[in-house]
Amino acid sequence: MRLLITMLALSIGLPAIAQDFNGQWKGSFNARGENGRVEYVLEINVDGDEVTGYSYTYPVFGGKKYYDICEIKGSVNKEKKYIEVIEVSKVKSNVPPPYRFDCFQTHKLTYTKNEDLESLTGSWGPAKLSISVCGTGFTKLERRKLKDIVTTLKNDPPPVAKKETPKKTATAPITKTEHKPKPNTGLVKTNKPANAKTSNPVAAKPKITAPLANKETKKTIELKKDTATIVKKSAVPVFEKVVTKPIPRFESRTNKVLKTIEVSQDIVTVQLYDNGEIDGDTVTVTFNGEVVALKKGLSEKPIVLKLKIKENTDNELVMYAENLGAIPPNTALMVVTVDDKRYQVTISSDEKRNGSIIFRRGG
Asked: Fewer CB within 10 Å: N-end or C-end of the chain?
């Protein structure tokens, strides 16, 4: 999962802009004269003509996959659809010493689009900061498509409808208690031995007559446990206030606002997916200072959030990396639905920074 700060926001209802290099590009490069390719990922953020972001190289030594994370800088020429990316410093690596070498690369790439496939292709060579002999080679990267993901954004009403069913089952135990109306004082003591141990705590609460559930027998309590789990499952996508205590190390990280989105409606739907390999990445998400998703694992199935937007103020959604997964970095693919428009957002964070999105709604 990836959480090192970069973001792509594309209105899915609008045609893609050919010169938009922002976001995550995945692919590989090879070394001239050698067999095989090395997995390579670029997280690109463009501001004017300047490029910043991170590169991720995944070499394999002895059958084991490692990672090498570098900070990148560079420039773009949008008219020529050309981008130059230079690795300038190493951020993190788990490559063991026998294979470790400082080979910073420069990638010179050109944007092309063939139907729905967007690509960056070109050549690479050693950057000026490289100490080791790097060699040269060819690079090919592609942007991840959202076509399959967006189709899952259709079901939210079904879980709400399921809330009605457990309440109907709660009426069944009430009819069972009517079989023994005479021994009202001994109702608890005449239960089966399996329930005898819990008779005293139940007998202490018959005074509360408003909720029907308190008049039920021990069998009724067992059913209540089942209904509670059903309600929790259906409530996950809707305004889930999980905790109010501060998240450890959350305040020590800086928040970088990646995108500001103007909205006219008071409800925004957000879906979060793992944007890389499914490797145990977990995140915590806050909205306006409250936790709406606590230590949730990212996968191909979305974490669904419905957020209520306040008027005339900044509504901040912050994603916090609980871990970096088995294969860093940690990046989540976010699908935001606003005013019947959908946006693809690649949002990232690490141990030092959180990814943030601002929603604004005029009065």
From this structure: C
